Hints:
alpha+beta, Chitinase A, domain 3, 2 domains, 5-stranded mixed beta sheet, about 40% helix
Amino acid sequence: xxxxxxxxxxxxxxxxxxxxxxxxxxxxxxxxxxxxxxxxxxxxxxxxxxxxxxxxxxxxxxxxxxxxxxxxxxxxxxxxxxxxxxxxxxxxxxxxxxxxxxxxxxxxxxxxxxxxxxxxxxxxxxxxxxxxxxxxxxxxxxxxxxxxxxxxxxxxxx
Length: 158
Protein backbone atom coordinates (compact mmCIF):
# COMPACT_ATOMS: atom_id res chain seq x y z
CA UNK A 1 0.00 0.00 0.00
CA UNK A 2 1.06 3.60 -0.47
CA UNK A 3 0.51 4.65 3.16
CA UNK A 4 -2.50 6.79 2.27
CA UNK A 5 -6.01 5.38 2.75
CA UNK A 6 -6.58 3.14 -0.28
CA UNK A 7 -9.97 2.91 -1.98
CA UNK A 8 -11.30 -0.52 -2.90
CA UNK A 9 -13.43 -1.67 -5.77
CA UNK A 10 -17.12 -2.41 -5.29
CA UNK A 11 -16.39 -6.13 -5.70
CA UNK A 12 -13.67 -6.09 -3.03
CA UNK A 13 -15.90 -4.09 -0.68
CA UNK A 14 -18.72 -6.60 -1.13
CA UNK A 15 -16.35 -9.52 -0.46
CA UNK A 16 -14.93 -7.82 2.65
CA UNK A 17 -18.40 -6.99 3.96
CA UNK A 18 -19.46 -10.63 3.44
CA UNK A 19 -16.33 -11.84 5.22
CA UNK A 20 -17.07 -9.47 8.09
CA UNK A 21 -20.63 -10.79 8.36
CA UNK A 22 -19.32 -14.37 8.37
CA UNK A 23 -16.73 -13.50 11.03
CA UNK A 24 -19.38 -11.95 13.28
CA UNK A 25 -21.54 -15.07 12.92
CA UNK A 26 -18.59 -17.36 13.68
CA UNK A 27 -17.72 -15.20 16.70
CA UNK A 28 -21.28 -15.49 18.05
CA UNK A 29 -21.12 -19.28 17.64
CA UNK A 30 -17.75 -19.60 19.40
CA UNK A 31 -18.74 -17.17 22.18
CA UNK A 32 -21.88 -19.21 22.85
CA UNK A 33 -19.72 -22.30 23.52
CA UNK A 34 -17.62 -20.61 26.20
CA UNK A 35 -18.61 -21.70 29.68
CA UNK A 36 -18.71 -19.71 32.85
CA UNK A 37 -15.32 -20.15 34.55
CA UNK A 38 -17.09 -21.67 37.60
CA UNK A 39 -18.49 -24.46 35.39
CA UNK A 40 -15.19 -25.60 33.88
CA UNK A 41 -14.43 -29.17 34.97
CA UNK A 42 -11.32 -31.27 34.37
CA UNK A 43 -8.12 -30.30 32.59
CA UNK A 44 -9.46 -31.39 29.19
CA UNK A 45 -12.41 -29.05 29.64
CA UNK A 46 -10.04 -26.26 30.69
CA UNK A 47 -7.82 -26.85 27.63
CA UNK A 48 -10.88 -26.77 25.39
CA UNK A 49 -11.99 -23.48 26.95
CA UNK A 50 -8.54 -21.97 26.43
CA UNK A 51 -8.58 -23.06 22.79
CA UNK A 52 -12.02 -21.49 22.20
CA UNK A 53 -10.95 -18.28 23.97
CA UNK A 54 -7.89 -18.14 21.70
CA UNK A 55 -10.09 -18.66 18.65
CA UNK A 56 -12.34 -15.84 19.86
CA UNK A 57 -9.30 -13.57 20.20
CA UNK A 58 -8.17 -14.35 16.62
CA UNK A 59 -11.68 -13.67 15.31
CA UNK A 60 -11.78 -10.34 17.16
CA UNK A 61 -8.44 -9.33 15.59
CA UNK A 62 -9.61 -10.23 12.07
CA UNK A 63 -12.92 -8.40 12.59
CA UNK A 64 -11.00 -5.31 13.71
CA UNK A 65 -8.72 -5.46 10.62
CA UNK A 66 -11.70 -5.83 8.27
CA UNK A 67 -13.57 -2.95 9.89
CA UNK A 68 -10.44 -0.76 9.74
CA UNK A 69 -9.99 -1.57 6.05
CA UNK A 70 -13.58 -0.62 5.28
CA UNK A 71 -13.13 2.68 7.15
CA UNK A 72 -9.92 3.38 5.19
CA UNK A 73 -11.72 2.67 1.93
CA UNK A 74 -14.39 5.22 2.84
CA UNK A 75 -11.68 7.84 3.44
CA UNK A 76 -9.81 6.80 0.28
CA UNK A 77 -12.78 7.59 -1.95
CA UNK A 78 -13.40 6.05 -5.37
CA UNK A 79 -10.97 3.89 -7.32
CA UNK A 80 -8.44 6.20 -9.01
CA UNK A 81 -8.60 6.63 -12.78
CA UNK A 82 -5.38 8.66 -13.26
CA UNK A 83 -2.94 6.27 -11.55
CA UNK A 84 -2.76 2.64 -10.50
CA UNK A 85 -4.60 1.93 -7.26
CA UNK A 86 -6.52 -0.86 -5.62
CA UNK A 87 -9.41 -1.62 -7.96
CA UNK A 88 -7.62 -0.43 -11.12
CA UNK A 89 -7.34 -2.52 -14.24
CA UNK A 90 -3.91 -1.94 -15.78
CA UNK A 91 -2.32 -3.12 -18.99
CA UNK A 92 1.39 -3.77 -18.64
CA UNK A 93 4.15 -4.81 -21.04
CA UNK A 94 6.63 -7.15 -19.40
CA UNK A 95 10.37 -7.32 -20.04
CA UNK A 96 9.89 -10.30 -22.38
CA UNK A 97 7.62 -8.18 -24.63
CA UNK A 98 4.32 -9.79 -23.62
CA UNK A 99 1.41 -7.57 -22.71
CA UNK A 100 -1.30 -8.44 -20.21
CA UNK A 101 -4.25 -6.69 -18.60
CA UNK A 102 -4.39 -7.21 -14.84
CA UNK A 103 -6.69 -6.17 -12.03
CA UNK A 104 -5.14 -4.78 -8.83
CA UNK A 105 -7.03 -6.14 -5.84
CA UNK A 106 -6.68 -6.91 -2.17
CA UNK A 107 -8.13 -10.36 -1.84
CA UNK A 108 -6.48 -13.25 -3.67
CA UNK A 109 -9.00 -15.17 -5.76
CA UNK A 110 -7.91 -18.42 -7.41
CA UNK A 111 -10.81 -18.02 -9.85
CA UNK A 112 -9.34 -14.76 -11.19
CA UNK A 113 -5.95 -15.44 -12.82
CA UNK A 114 -5.71 -11.77 -13.87
CA UNK A 115 -5.84 -10.50 -10.27
CA UNK A 116 -2.63 -9.15 -8.78
CA UNK A 117 -2.85 -8.36 -5.08
CA UNK A 118 -1.72 -4.91 -4.00
CA UNK A 119 0.74 -6.40 -1.53
CA UNK A 120 2.49 -8.65 -4.08
CA UNK A 121 5.85 -7.52 -5.52
CA UNK A 122 4.26 -6.51 -8.85
CA UNK A 123 1.22 -4.97 -7.15
CA UNK A 124 3.37 -2.84 -4.82
CA UNK A 125 5.52 -1.71 -7.76
CA UNK A 126 2.46 -0.66 -9.79
CA UNK A 127 0.61 1.30 -7.08
CA UNK A 128 0.66 5.03 -7.78
CA UNK A 129 2.11 4.63 -11.30
CA UNK A 130 0.77 6.18 -14.50
CA UNK A 131 0.90 5.12 -18.17
CA UNK A 132 4.46 5.23 -19.49
CA UNK A 133 6.05 4.47 -16.10
CA UNK A 134 8.52 1.60 -15.87
CA UNK A 135 8.51 -0.42 -12.66
CA UNK A 136 10.98 -2.92 -11.23
CA UNK A 137 9.88 -5.79 -9.04
CA UNK A 138 11.14 -9.09 -7.71
CA UNK A 139 9.90 -12.06 -9.76
CA UNK A 140 10.55 -15.76 -9.08
CA UNK A 141 13.52 -15.66 -11.49
CA UNK A 142 14.96 -12.42 -10.12
CA UNK A 143 14.33 -8.72 -10.57
CA UNK A 144 12.47 -7.73 -13.73
CA UNK A 145 10.65 -4.74 -15.17
CA UNK A 146 7.29 -3.87 -16.65
CA UNK A 147 5.91 -0.78 -18.35
CA UNK A 148 2.44 0.61 -17.55
CA UNK A 149 0.73 0.79 -20.94
CA UNK A 150 -2.76 1.97 -19.96
CA UNK A 151 -5.29 2.17 -17.14
CA UNK A 152 -8.92 1.20 -17.04
CA UNK A 153 -11.66 0.20 -14.65
CA UNK A 154 -12.62 -3.31 -13.56
CA UNK A 155 -15.36 -3.38 -16.22
CA UNK A 156 -12.71 -2.90 -18.92
CA UNK A 157 -11.07 -6.19 -18.04
CA UNK A 158 -13.03 -8.30 -20.48
